[in-house]
């Protein structure tokens, strides 16, 4: 009889395209992946992997079995969801992916509530950008993900996923204390168009937030001068404090602002929409429902995002 965990390993290899990718997705070592595949090949009696340069590829038999594995795993997960829903208790493991500011601003309170209200539910959290986290939910590598889009640019959500709005996260412009507009901190709102001559500090190229910044500034007739790239908001603020440019800084999970930085509220209504996503076929699972409820409660608490 075929072993389910070995089929999961084969499915991960097919989805990720490499041993290291499968190992990361399964949270195991590359040697564990290789061992599981060697055992599966002995069970099947024919090779499932072939060398491909420095990596590996699935053989014809490997692709055939991987297609069956994906369907088997989907049915097993559906059965687990039905059994959990029938039992009516949030138990087992809940795997959550969240972007950095949500990790700081929402997850501590949500996880504390889950631990208190559902002691038999074990939450595991992974820091991940929204696009990657949503793809992991679609694949079944995560149960829940926190995602964002912006007031003027929506992020596509795969059809297989349901979502729940958690909060709207206002954003400010961070400028050096010596900036000509710094004196307007804490008073009237300012337009992004007023920073046409400034150098910008942005997120990594290719990330949704970087694309949003370029899209928004160009929509205001401003060709952005992006000089520095930094993924973490705290790093961006450190660059602002050093007088190296300006940046957009959302309030969720922002924490203390460095000395030498002034925050300017934006008149353009700049804000992010933060929401939770999960697979539609897992909507009845008590663990998913408990996770969404805890995130909603954490989002409703007074804080810097409101």
From TrEMBL:
Residues that span the membrane, as ranges = none
Q: Where is the HTH lysR-type domain?
A: 2-59
Tell me, what's a Pfam family for it?
LysR_substrate
What domain of life does the UniProt record list for this protein's source? Bacteria
SUPFAM superfamilies recorded: Periplasmic binding protein-like II (SSF53850), Winged helix' DNA-binding domain (SSF46785)
Q: Please name the InterPro entries in this protein's record.
A: LysR_HTH_N, LysR_subst-bd, WH-like_DNA-bd_sf, WH_DNA-bd_sf
Q: Which UniProt keywords apply?
A: DNA-binding, Transcription, Transcription regulation
Similarity comment text for this entry: Belongs to the LysR transcriptional regulatory family.
Q: What is this protein called?
A: LysR family transcriptional regulator
